[in-house]
Specification:
single chain, about 325 residues, alpha/beta, Spore Coat Polysaccharide Biosynthesis Protein SpsA, Chain A, 2 domains, about 15% strand
C-alpha cells in the first residue's frame, strides 16, 4: 500500500542546509503521516546537493531523490517530482524552510477532515521583502489578474493537492509550465492558509531579476491572449491620433497659417516605429511559445535516481 502523503521538494545548490532542512520537514510530517514519502528533485546543482540527498536517502527510506541532467528550472523540477508521487495527497514546498513545515499538519487536516482539494499557503508579511521585490510582485500579480482573470495575489508554490487535482494537472500537456497558475486553473475546492515567510535556512535565492522577468512574461503569455488583442487597439488609437493630426494640418493649411511639419513628421515616425516594434515583440513571444510546443521536447531529463522505477516525461 502506498503512502497517504507525498512531498515534492525541488532543490538547486542547497548543499549547505538541505540535510538539516529535510530532517526538520520529516519531523513535522511524522506528526500526520509516518509512512509519507519525500521526493527531492535536484535541478542540476553544481555543488554537493545530490551527494548529500543521496546519502540521506540511504539512511532514511522515505526520502527518494531524482537528479536532472542539467538545470531545467524550478518549474520543470516540480513537474519531475509530481510525476513520481504515489500519495493520496501531495505537498509541494521549497527546501530552504521559507515554506514553514510547521503548517503541514494544518494543511493535512484541512484536506482530510474538511474535504479541501487544494490547501495553499499565502504570504501575510509582504513588508519583509525589499521594496523593488514587493513592487515587482504587486505589478506582476495585478497584470496577471487583469489579463487572465485569475487572482494569484500573495500565492506561493507551497500547497497541498488532492490526488485527483494532481491527476488533472498531469493532463495539461504544455511544455512551458507555471505551476502556480496551472494548479489554480484546474479549479476544485480550495482553502487558503496565511503564512509568515521566515528567513532562509541557508544559501541565497537562485532567482535573478532577469529570470523573474522571464518567468513573468512566460506566465502571462501562457494564460492570456489579451496582449495580442491590444495590438489592434494600439493601431486604432494611433490611427485616431494620425487622423486628428491630419485634420489639424489641413485646418492650418486652409487658414493660410501652415507651418513646417518636419518635427511633427519625426515624432510620428518615432511613435509609429515604437508601436510597431512593441507589437512585433508581443507577437514574437507567442510565436516562440508555439515553436516550443511544436518541438515537443521533454520538460526535463532525468540523469540519476535513487529509485529504480522512475517515470520519464512524454
Amino acid at each position: 500500500m502506498g503512502p497517504t502523503l507525498s512531498l515534492v521538494i525541488p532543490a538547486h545548490n542547497e548543499a549547505t542546509h538541505i540535510e538539516s532542512s529535510l530532517r526538520t520537514i520529516l519531523r513535522d510530517v511524522d506528526a500526520v503521516d509516518p509512512s509519507s514519502e519525500v521526493i527531492v528533485v535536484d535541478d542540476g546543482s553544481n555543488d554537493e546537493t545530490w551527494n548529500v540527498v543521496r546519502r540521506l536517502s540511504q539512511l532514511e527510506p522515505r526520502v527518494r531523490a531524482i537528479r536532472l541532467s542539467r538545470r531545467f528550472g524550478k518549474e520543470a523540477a516540480i513537474c519531475a517530482g509530481l510525476m513520481q508521487v504515489r500519495g493520496l495527497a501531495v505537498i509541494v514546498m521549497d527546501s530552504d524552510l521559507q515554506h514553514p513545515p510547521a503548517l503541514i499538519p494544518q494543511m493535512y487536516k484541512a484536506w482530510r477532515d474538511e474535504g479541501c482539494d487544494v490547501v495553499e499557503a499565502v504570504t501575510s508579511n509582504r513588508d519583509s521583502r525589499s521594496w523593488s521585490a514587493d513592487r515587482g510582485g504587486r505589478l506582476f500579480y495585478t497584470l496577471f489578474r487583469r489579463l487572465s482573470n485569475m487572482d494569484l495575489g500573495n500565492a506561493t508554490d507551497f500547497k497541498l493537492m488532492d490526488r485527483r487535482v494532481v491527476d488533472a494537472w498531469a493532463q495539461l500537456p504544455e511544455r512551458t509550465t507555471f505551476f502556480r497558475g496551472m494548479s489554480a486553473w484546474t479549479g476544485f475546492r480550495r482553502r487558503q492558509i496565511p503564512m509568515t515567510v521566515p528567513t532562509r535556512a541557508g544559501g541565497r535565492s537562485q532567482w535573478s531579476a532577469l529570470q523573474l522577468m522571464g518567468l513573468a512574461v512566460d506566465s502571462i503569455t501562457s494564460f492570456s491572449a489579451v496582449p495580442v488583442y491590444l495590438i489592434p487597439l494600439a493601431g486604432l488609437l494611433f490611427f485616431i491620433f494620425g487622423a486628428a493630426l491630419a485634420l489639424q494640418s489641413l485646418y492650418y493649411k486652409l487658414e493660410g497659417s501652415g507651418r513646417e511639419g518636419f518635427p511633427t513628421v519625426i515624432i510620428v515616425q518615432v511613435v509609429l516605429g515604437s508601436v510597431l516594434l512593441f507589437s512585433l515583440g508581443i507577437i514574437g513571444q507567442y510565436i516562440v511559445k508555439i515553436y516550443d510546443e511544436v518541438k515537443a521536447r521533454p520538460r526535463f531529463i532525468v540523469a540519476e535516481s535513487t529509485d529504480t522505477e522512475v517515470s520519464h516525461p512524454d
